Amino acid sequence: MTTSINLTPNPRILQMLGQIEFENWQCIAELVDNSIDALLKDFNNGRTDRGEIRVSIPTFTQYTEGSPITIWDNGPGMNINQLENALKAGYSSNDPTSNLGLFGMGFNISTARIGDRTSVFTSQKGEPNEIGIEIDFQDMILNNSYDRPVLSKHKDNSYISGTTIKIYKLKERVSHLGQQGISSLKKQLSKVYSKLIRDYNIEIYVNGDKLVPNKKCIWSPERYVIRNHEKIPAYLEVNENLGDMYFCSCCWNWLDAPVIEGLTPPICKICETSDFVSARERIISGWLGIQRYYDKDDYGVDFYRNGRLIVANDKSLFYWKNPETGEPEIEYPVDALHFGGRIVGELETNFVKVTYTKDSIEKMDKHWDALTKKIRGEAPIRPNIAQDFGYPKNGTYTARLFGGYRKANKPGREDLLPGKYNSSRNKWEADNVQPKAWAELFYKGESEYQDDHKWWDLVEQVEENRRSSNIAAGEGSGEEDFLNPNFPSGDSRTNVPPIGGEPPISGIQRPLTGDAEVAVTSVVIDTEEDSLISYVKDEYLSGVYKVDELGEDGIVLDVFINNSLTQEKPLIIEKLSYSNTRHIITRTPTCSRVLPTPLKNTY
């Protein structure tokens, strides 16, 4: 009778791992991860010299000639036992809370997806020879064996250590990686390893070009705004301890039992032993801050695990789950949709579970829930909505930045917004064109744009003109929408008649501060009517009208002058996104301010 069954899989299983969906850059990154893990261990053991990783991708011509993809590092190298374990599918001695390598499958999946034959040679300092193994799928399948002979070759310098991986018989999917795909590969790897390159003495080269780490174009920590007498810096450091929890390094499983100092660790319910269970920290570190420009997509939080980027520009912290509907509601950006967002950050969260592809976070995990409660809270970050639902004030990192930097309509220090002068409207306005153009120069590494002084000059320029405008209008006038003090007439409120007075010669009346009675009537016309051809748009009166206290989007109004009317009565045309009609509101010529009529579904 048979006493045991050999469950060693057919060698074809290694070849089949290549069918798992990894993009080309992910395959290269998996192999780079292993090199980085080795270098970091070396640094922890006292290494002081620079760590290097070199990736070589063949051109298409070299690909057709059989040249390999090569990943080389000058790490500590491996002995024969370590080499065997590193190449064994499913084996991992890595602690997933402190290493980049996961699951023990990255090497096998990546090499099988790239090519059909792989050689690995490694050596440690003081050893005269390199040792290596060659993995040839076809040969292993024909011989139905996992056994591979250990190879050896002499080193020129016994002091040298490191590991070299070469992948041959390359698949067609990587045939153009060294040409059309090389720029994208460099960009992706620069993004993924930016923090590690910045934090450690490690250099990574791709086809001879050193990767330059990415960085955020943010305001300096010295910049701030004031809200309700509270100073809110444009840069908030994050260092939060969520408390220790027990972790089983055998099963890679977090236990729910509380950590009690002096007591024996509990038994893991999966492996039914406490031998691999120990208390681990759950720390969130990094920062959240404000970008020097707005963008529709380029904002949000980058999440890192042990220095490696997992998710870039994640916007999860800007959503709130409504307990009444159970649905997530977007909370930012809601005030500057035309610009986008500018809250950004980098958070290191080594305890949060990630997917095997290392490009997303398991957001159903309890640790992710604990993280979001600490960084953004359970309450809405919109104060009025929070109050309506009976929540106390939300004082988390995200809520503070939202409260301080949510708006984008008033240039100057109040909202930390660069501005520009609009000569057609005789008005200073928030500007995002110049800040974004300068940001491109920042990302290109031009020294003049690395700090925020140019952006700050645009903020200060607005403030200087505001002070000049107030002096021209009378000290302490407190005007919010100030005009150019150098207006040709010399009057900062030119062309505005007193209430009840005659219309200005130009026929265009400017809005005044303060409330004014206005007689309005409404009609609806088809937007395609030929009669619209007689209307001339007033750029000054056109814009967004809103009540800030409501915390909602305003009404977009286009104001036109109908040249066919007597007394040059202006018309307001309100654009409605949900129909093909427009509301036209006429007013008497003696009215000095245009006030929008509130509509249903608007507030």
Key descriptive features of the protein:
603 residues; alpha+beta; 8-stranded mixed β-sheet; 5-stranded mixed β-sheet; 13 helices; 27% strand
Strand order of the largest sheet: 5-4-3-6-2-1-7-8
What do the pLDDT scores average to? 80
Distance between the termini: 80 Å
Counted by DSSP, the helix tally is 13
What composes the largest sheet?
8 strands, mixed
Outline type: globular
> How many whole angstroms does the radius of gyration measure?
32 Å
* Parts with pLDDT < 50 across at least 5 consecutive residues: 476-533, 574-603
Give the DSSP E fraction (strand runs of 2 or more residues). 25-35%
Structural category is alpha+beta
Strand elements, count? 27
Q: What percent of the residues sit in helical stretches (DSSP H or I)?
A: 10-25%
What topology emerges from the helices and strands here?
Blueprint: H1 12-16, H2 24-44, E1 51-56, H3 60-64, E2 69-73, H4 80-87, H5 106-114, E3 115-123, E4 129-136, H6 137-143, E5 151-154, E6 162-170, H7 182-192, H8 194-199, E7 202-206, E8 209-210, E9 224-227, E10 230-233, E11 235-241, E12 245-248, E13 253-254, E14 277-280, E15 283-295, E16 300-305, E17 308-314, E18 319-321, E19 328-330, E20 341-348, H9 366-375, H10 383-388, H11 397-405, E21 419-422, E22 427-430, H12 433-443, H13 453-473, E23 520-526, E24 535-545, E25 555-562, E26 570-575, E27 581-587
Parallel strand pairs: 1-7, 16-20
Antiparallel strand pairs: 1-2, 2-6, 3-4, 3-6, 4-5, 7-8, 9-10, 11-15, 12-13, 12-14, 15-20, 16-17, 18-19, 21-22, 23-27, 24-25, 25-26, 26-27
Helix pairs in contact: 2-5
